[in-house]
């Protein structure tokens, strides 16, 4: 469900392309979530009202259908609505394909932005005549194919991606809190009211999502993060010093505490083959205290206003060029 409601992420990633962000951003973010909610409410209502008593004789955890493994195809089969099953299969192909196209676009733009910020090779920002970063798209395709090796099933792939998205989402709220303090007078085409409060709530919820995906998934995510760090350090090794951005290790202290802490809590937690030392109820207040600690560290060691303003101006000049 978290993955299904994820359409707002691409709207945020492509915000820089919008001609009028003040108008487009609320429509894109609220609209994507609202539309998904309406579709899922109709879908769930149709499913629940179509169930027979025999489907739940052994309880919801043992939901059963006589001739189908999929709940929706099972409903259509037992109601003899066989003509609708091909439409369901067509939708099952079109839906992931559309999501894949959007993700390919958004992830390529992320690589493009990282290349522009000099954290990845500049060649990844090379554009076609139509304005598409073709090499970044190719790299994302290869990485996506490689992900099927450790994650062969759809369920595992979705759990991994949800955990990865929750981790990346958690960085955004901390960034918003820091930028509100670093550049309070900065002109913002779209400004969220009560931004710091919403940012902390979002940070807390994202951290809970990350914990709930379980140790079995989070341990694989840790491996992916290590690989990403190796790519970063290898690239920096072969990049001239004049072209490197400083890593700002002191200012990034919060993220190392965050990654190490959530990994430890997940290992001790009850989800995904964790040790079970921390129970479900206790995980809520433990994560809340942990998020408060990480937020305090992030605010304490954030970049200075002058340095932040310099980075913003440099990136603005690069984008204008």
Question: How do the helices and strands line up, and which of them pair or pack?
Answer:
Elements: H1 7-13, H2 21-50, H3 71-78, H4 85-116, H5 134-146, H6 154-182, H7 195-212, H8 215-237, H9 253-268, H10 280-300, H11 305-320
Helix pairs in contact: 1-2, 4-5, 6-7, 6-8, 7-9, 7-10, 8-9, 9-10
Structure description:
This protein is an all-alpha fold and 321 residues long. It has helices spanning 7-13, 21-50, 71-78, 85-116, 134-146, 154-182, 195-212, 215-237, 253-268, 280-300, 305-320. Helix 6 runs antiparallel to helix 7 and helix 7 crosses helix 10. The longest helix has 32 residues, at 85-116.
Strand-residue proportion = under 5%
Helical content band: 55-70%
Distance between the termini: 40 Å
Shape: globular
Largest sheet: none
- Element string (H = helix, E = strand): HHHHHHHHHHH
Structural class: mainly alpha
Which parts are unreliable, with pLDDT below 50 for 5 consecutive residues or more?
none
CA radius of gyration is 22 Å
- Average predicted confidence as pLDDT: 84
Tally of individual helices: 11
Annotation, overall tally of beta strands: 0
Q: Which descriptors would you attach to this protein?
A:
globular, 11 helices, mainly alpha, 321 residues
Concise structural overview:
The protein has helices at about 5-15, 20-50, 70-80, 85-115, 135-145, 155-180, 195-210, 215-235, 255-270, 280-300, 305-320. It has about 325 residues and is an all-alpha fold.
């Amino acid at each position: 469900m978290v993955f299904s409601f994820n359409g707002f992420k691409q709207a945020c990633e492509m915000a820089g392309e919008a001609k009028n962000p003040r108008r487009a951003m609320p429509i894109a973010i609220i609209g994507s979530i609202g539309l998904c909610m309406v579709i899922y409410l109709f879908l769930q209502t149709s499913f629940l009202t179509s169930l027979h008593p025999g489907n739940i004789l052994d309880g919801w955890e043992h939901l059963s259908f006589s001739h189908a493994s999929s709940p929706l195809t099972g409903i259509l089969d037992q109601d003899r609505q066989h003509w609708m099953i091909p439409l369901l299969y067509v939708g099952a192909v079109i839906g992931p394909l559309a999501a894949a196209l959007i993700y390919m676009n958004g992830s390529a733009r992320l690589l493009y932005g990282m290349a522009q910020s000099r954290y990845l090779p500049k060649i990844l920002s090379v554009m076609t005549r139509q304005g598409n970063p073709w090499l970044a798209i190719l790299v994302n395709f290869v990485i996506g194919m490689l992900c099927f090796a450790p994650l062969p099933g759809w369920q595992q792939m979705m759990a991994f991606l949800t955990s990865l998205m929750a981790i990346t989402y958690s960085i955004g709220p901390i960034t918003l809190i820091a930028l509100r303090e670093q550049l309070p007078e900065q002109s913002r085409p779209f400004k969220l009211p009560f931004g710091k409060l919403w940012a902390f709530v979002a940070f807390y919820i994202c951290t809970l999502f990350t914990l709930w995906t379980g140790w079995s998934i989070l341990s694989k995510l840790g491996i992916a993060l290590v690989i990403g760090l190796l790519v970063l350090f290898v690239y920096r090794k072969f990049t001239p010093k004049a072209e490197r951005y400083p890593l700002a290790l002191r200012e990034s202290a919060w993220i190392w505490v965050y990654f190490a802490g959530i990994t430890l809590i997940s290992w001790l937690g009850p989800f995904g083959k964790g040790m079970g030392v921390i129970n479900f109820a206790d995980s809520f207040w433990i994560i809340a205290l942990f998020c408060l600690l990480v937020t305090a560290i992030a605010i304490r060691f954030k970049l200075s206003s002058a340095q932040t303003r310099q980075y913003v101006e440099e990136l603005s000049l690069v984008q204008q060029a």
